[in-house]
């Protein structure tokens, strides 16, 4: 069975997210570990997290893919921004220990004219201070569209980061279909070739989740604007191929398409489950 869900709001708490996921036919989901624009997190409600953990087990959910706020930048040129990102991520990872066995995805960062190599080094060094041996969360680097000075727009950049991380077994990659397409990997005409390239440069064993989004922009535009499944430049047939591909079909798929409400996601989940049958 296809493992699929979407981004859900955490404003009503953890258990409410699990219940909403069930309502829309999802068996995984993403959520922001805190307000994506600001930095403050609500105090942790341990009982609520435990209630969600038992719902997930009871209904055989695939791993969740929590998302770090976009504002974190581990390779900023400002020390205060780097330490804010590091401290916030440390706190997020401590909290996720109440939901063991899931993933925590983040955007590697923007190097702000310091150069890609310096950026990759700063990100990896920060991760070396954040990961610990006994943790129960897998930390994922997201493939990016490569806009501005974004790090992670090529598989080589993600490899460069992973090479410097000490606790490699705690790491993985989340492939975003809109981002890789906008970044210049042609998953429309050559999905197989792109996955072969991923395997050659990074290794498919690192691939732990997929963000499944169509794109509003042409191939290689380095833009990053998501579109509803089938309505963008990737198109329905690409998603049929993505959800049935032997290298991908077992992974958790997360929708981040522009929807007015969760019923829009319910439709996409139903459609994609149909493709996978
Ligand atoms: Fe993302
Ligand atoms: Fe994404
Ligand atoms: Zn995006």
Characterization of this structure:
The termini are close together. It is globular, with a radius of gyration of 18 Å. The mean pLDDT is 96. The chain has helices spanning 14-23, 46-58, 79-96, 116-130, 155-164, 177-182, 191-201, 235-244, 262-276, and strands at residues 3-6, 65-67, 103-106, 109-110, 138-142, 150-151, 171-176, 207-212, 214-215, 226-227, 252-255. The protein has a single domain (3-276), classed as Alpha-Beta Barrel (TIM Barrel), CATH 3.20.20.150. The chain contains nine helices and eleven strands. α1 packs parallel to α2. A seven-stranded parallel beta sheet has the order 1-11-8-7-5-3-2. Strands 4-6 form a two-stranded antiparallel ribbon. A two-stranded antiparallel ribbon has the order 9-10. The longest helix is centred in the N-terminal third of the chain and has 18 residues, at 79-96. With 277 residues, it is of the alpha/beta class. Bound molecules: fe (iii) ion (FE) (2 copies) and zinc ion. One fe (iii) ion (FE) binds at residues 67, 107, 142.
Describe what is shown at a glance:
The chain has 277 residues and is of the alpha/beta class. It is built from nine helices and eleven strands. It starts with a strand and ends with a helix.
């Amino acid at each position: 069975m296809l493992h699929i869900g979407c981004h859900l709001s955490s404003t009503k708490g953890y258990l409410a997210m699990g219940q909403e996921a069930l309502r829309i036919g999802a068996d995984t989901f993403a959520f922001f570990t805190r307000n994506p624009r600001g930095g403050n997190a609500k105090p942790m409600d341990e009982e609520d997290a435990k209630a969600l953990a038992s719902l997930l087990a009871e209904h055989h959910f695939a791993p969740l893919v929590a998302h770090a706020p976009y504002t974190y930048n581990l390779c900023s040129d400002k020390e205060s921004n780097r330490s804010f990102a590091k401290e916030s991520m440390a706190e997020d990872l401590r909290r996720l220990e109440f939901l063991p066995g899931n993933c925590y995805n983040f955007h590697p960062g923007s190097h702000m004219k310091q150069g890609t190599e310096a950026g990759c080094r700063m990100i990896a060094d920060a991760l070396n201070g954040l990961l610990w041996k006994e943790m129960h969360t897998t930390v994922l680097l997201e493939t990016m569209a490569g806009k501005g000075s974004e790090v992670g727009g090529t598989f080589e950049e993600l490899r460069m980061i992973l090479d410097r991380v000490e606790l490699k077994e705690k790491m993985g990659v989340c492939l975003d279909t809109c981002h890789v397409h906008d970044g210049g990997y042609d998953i429309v005409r050559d999905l197989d070739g792109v996955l072969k390239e991923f395997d050659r440069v990074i290794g498919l064993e690192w691939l732990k989740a997929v963000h499944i989004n169509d794109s509003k922009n042409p191939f290689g535009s380095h833009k990053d604007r998501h579109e509803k499944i089938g309505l963008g430049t990737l198109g329905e047939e690409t998603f049929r191929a993505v959800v049935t591909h032997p290298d991908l079909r077992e992974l958790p798929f997360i929708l981040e398409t522009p929807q007015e409400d969760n019923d829009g996601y319910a439709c996409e989940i139903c459609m994609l489950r149909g493709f996978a049958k």
